[in-house]
Specification:
Mean pLDDT: 85
Helix content: under 10%
Strand content: over 45%
Number of strands: 10
Order of helices and strands: EEEEEEEEEEH
Low-confidence stretches: none
Largest sheet: 10 strands, antiparallel, barrel
Oligomer: single chain
CATH architecture: Beta Barrel
Number of helices: 1
Shape: globular
Radius of gyration: 16 Å
Structural class: mainly beta
CATH topology: Lipocalin
Distance between the termini: 35 Å
Strand order of the largest sheet: 1-2-3-4-5-6-7-8-9-10
């Protein structure tokens, strides 16, 4: 379904990461990240795309990012190009080998997607992704990412979101 998303959108991205301990429990101090970034939206060949720039952890370098949503196949790909580059692939109950390029070399790990919900509305798209990062076939980090895309414009959720973050 191609909604009435505008080309210019706002992305609200929230992520929570908790280290998996050897005894199977989760670390109490989970790391949380949240940011809002302008992005471009495209719908092509039955897939939704978000394209945006984000600053690297040091804030000095720009990482070009793209999110591709295949609603029919219920998959999501997140691609990053820049100082930190790679591709994350999400499909519920599937493991995907991932390689990330870093300034220190390549890092290999598995992504095990435990939950993936895609909701497409008229001028909003929501992704809820739950996954485990595995190193040497052992759970290392449990993650929960929420990605919300809002059309820009008067009377939209993006206008409401901008008012909240600029107050």
């Amino acid at each position: 379904m191609a909604g009435k998303m505008t080309r210019e959108i706002l992305l609200q991205i929230t992520g929570i990461h908790a280290e998996s301990l050897e005894n199977g429990s989760k670390e109490k101090d989970a790391e949380s990240v949240e940011f809002v970034v302008p992005a471009d939206y495209f719908f092509k060949n039955g897939k939704h795309y978000f394209v945006y720039d984000e600053a690297s952890r040091g804030g000095k370098k720009i990482v070009k990012s793209k999110i591709k949503i295949n609603e029919k196949e219920k998959t999501v790909e997140i691609m990053k190009n820049g100082q930190m580059g790679g591709m994350l692939f999400f499909e519920k109950d599937r493991r995907a080998l991932t390689c990330y390029s870093t300034p220190f070399g390549q890092v290999f790990f598995d992504i095990w997607t435990t939950g993936l919900d895609i909701t497409i509305e008229e001028d909003e798209i929501f992704l809820d992704i739950r996954y485990t990062v595995e190193v040497d076939q052992r759970p290392a980090i449990d993650c929960h990412a929420k990605i919300c895309a809002y059309s820009k414009g008067k009377g939209t959720k993006s206008e409401e979101l901008l008012q909240k973050i600029t107050v």
